[in-house]
Amino acid sequence: MGLDITYDILIIGAGPIGLAAGLEAQKEGLSYLILERGCLVNSIYNYPLNMTFFSTSERLEIGGVPFTSLNAKPTRSEAMEYYRRVADTFDLNINLFEEVQHLQPEGEIYHIQTSKSTYKARNVVVAVGFYGIPNLLHVPGEDLAKVRHYYFDPHYYFRQKVLVVGANNSAADAALETWRKGAEVTLVVRQPELGSIKYWTKPDLENRIKAGEIKAYFNASVTEVRAQEVDIQTPEGKVTVANDFVLAMTGYQPDFSFLEKIGVKLTEDEKRYPQYHPDTMETNLPRVYLAGVICGGMDTHVWFIENSREHAIKIVRHIKHAQEAAKV
């Protein structure tokens, strides 16, 4: 059990920003523990096998540790190698595959119940990502095994009829990669045109669509999925296409239920912005902080590794100053 230690900071999430918070705490001489319900940098692990970051490697660095890459844009495997080496080099205090279930304040201390133990901490940093809960299509047949909200390896779809839903990077990568591995690909885009796609990918997909190698329906949506076909509503009417797999690359959302359960206030509109002070990252709960993409609510394209690394610095600086002020 962890009750014999009261940590200065307990960090929920071992993604890049959670690791950055641990590095800052260590640098400032604060005791800390990082808890992660999955593997190290779990969101990156769940990215597609051949995924390439939009950012350059130096913008993904944390703790001042250089991230060298063989490519202009680093890959998923390079990023996992980098963050593993950071965790090992600094011997970060991390418990993996341990899910935080409950947070209970008692005076100036938080009691944290997990799937394995109980801990005490003066401050809590929530640095969880948004890759665990997919945005659903909400159509009949979405519960069929053929419907996937995560895409990993294109080889699996060789000689299969694949329908990809989405307009942005994930959908573009899935469509192009599965097509190149021998799939018959249909793309369904709700908008009138392709969305925000990496500049080296977008013209490739546009050319495949123009050549008729990938069939695309714009201003369209899936209305029903069945065992061997899919219905698509288009501006010209309903279209039924033969289908083996549906890759719904419709994005993901943070675990709002966890934030609500521990008492973090959220806006009541569709954006579900959590309440926090931008200078300190402290929420409406005293000494509970947010870091990383969770800060954007449903706006999951606002915060990234490169622009939320500073959250860790703000948080640890605020905690350190509060501790020093309490000693005066």
Q: What does this protein look like?
A:
By secondary structure, the protein is α/β, with parallel strands linked by helices. It folds into 2 domains: 208 residues, 3-Layer(bba) Sandwich (FAD/NAD(P)-binding domain); 113 residues, FAD/NAD(P)-binding domain (3-Layer(bba) Sandwich). 25% of the residues lie in helices and 25% in strands. The chain has 7 helices and 17 strands. Strands 1, 2, 3, 4, 5, 6 and 17 form a 7-stranded mixed sheet that branches. The protein has a 5-stranded parallel sheet with strand order 8-15-9-10-11, with helices on one face. Strand 1, helix 1 and strand 2 form a beta-alpha-beta unit. Helix 1 runs parallel beside helix 7. The longest helix is centred in the C-terminal third of the chain and has 23 residues. It is elongated. The model has no long low-confidence stretch (mean pLDDT 94).
Helix content: 10-25%
Radius of gyration: 22 Å
CATH architecture of the largest domain: 3-Layer(bba) Sandwich
What is the averaged pLDDT score? 94
Q: In the CATH hierarchy, what is the superfamily of the largest domain?
A: FAD/NAD(P)-binding domain
Strand content: 25-35%
Topology of helices and strands:
Blueprint: E1 2-12, H1 16-27, E2 32-35, H2 42-45, H3 76-89, E3 94-95, E4 100-106, E5 109-114, E6 118-126, E7 133-134, E8 147-148, E9 161-165, H4 169-180, E10 184-188, H5 202-210, E11 215-217, E12 221-225, E13 229-234, E14 237-242, E15 245-248, E16 252-253, H6 256-262, E17 288-290, H7 305-327
Parallel strand pairs: 1-2, 1-6, 2-3, 6-17, 8-15, 9-10, 9-15, 10-11
Antiparallel strand pairs: 4-5, 5-6, 7-16, 12-13, 13-14
Helix pairs in contact: 1-7
Protein name: YpdA family putative bacillithiol disulfide reductase
GO molecular function: oxidoreductase activity
InterPro entries: Bdr, FAD/NAD-bd_sf, Ferredoxin-NADP_redctase_2
